[in-house]
Amino acid sequence: MANLSSNLQSILENRLRYLPEITGQAIGSIDWATRIITIGHNYGLHVDEMEDFQAVVLKSMIGLISPENFETELINALALSPATTEKIITELNVAVFEPIHDYVMNGGKSDPMKSLGITIETPSSLAEPRDTPTSQVEKPELEIPASPEPDTAPREKAEDYF
Fold first, then answer.
1. Integer Cα distance of 162 and 159 in angstroms
2. Which of 15, 35, 106, 117 might form a disulfide with 62, Cβ 3.0–4.6 angstroms?
3. pLDDT at residue 70 in the model
């Protein structure tokens, strides 16, 4: 990764020894460091903040930051608003985390359709109709069940058992 500082490169290399081989291959399969810089530029991060941004994302990818703490770590490292952080995380998911996840899940094989930007969605004809006029939809009548008959059988007393 040409866009990583020597400190981050050292962290990555040391941690990759303990991760499954497919995870290391997946991390190396995309230029995630450059993608992170691009996302940072889109949100006006300064050059000084880019290494901190890359460090938080890298530590998340290699398991040093849990997914539950990722948003908090980004906010703390970059002094971002929660709304901006949410937008950045959405872009990171699409540009970095999903390709790495897909690589691992496909055993190192890339999905040719996804790499071309083709996704398969459920046809709308199979989904429930949304613009059916309510007058044409048959609604079952609401039935209120009858009250149960009063129970007139004698109740057992506690004294009967003791």
1. 5
2. 15
3. 92
- Write out pLDDT tens, residues 13-28: 888 888 889 888 988 8
Q: Take residue 143 and report the two structure tokens written for it.
A: 């039935």
Q: Cβ contacts of residue 23 below 8 Å, gap of 6+?
A: 16, 104
Q: Is the pLDDT of residue 149 over 60?
A: yes
| Amino acid code (one letter) for 145 | P
As a whole number, the mean pLDDT across the chain is: 80
pTM above 0.85, yes or no: no
91 touches 42 (CB < 8 A): yes
Cα-based distances in Å from 117 to 33, 39, 66, 86, 112 = 21, 19, 29, 23, 9
3-state secondary structure the chain: CCCCCHHHHHHHHHHHCCCCHHHHHHHHCCCHHHHHHHHHHHCCCCHHHHHHHHHHHHHHHCCCCCHHHHHHHHHHHHCCCHHHHHHHHHHHHHHHHHHHHHHHHCCCCCCHHHHCCCCCCCCCCCCCCCCCCCCCCCCCCCCCCCCCCCCCCCCCCHHHCC
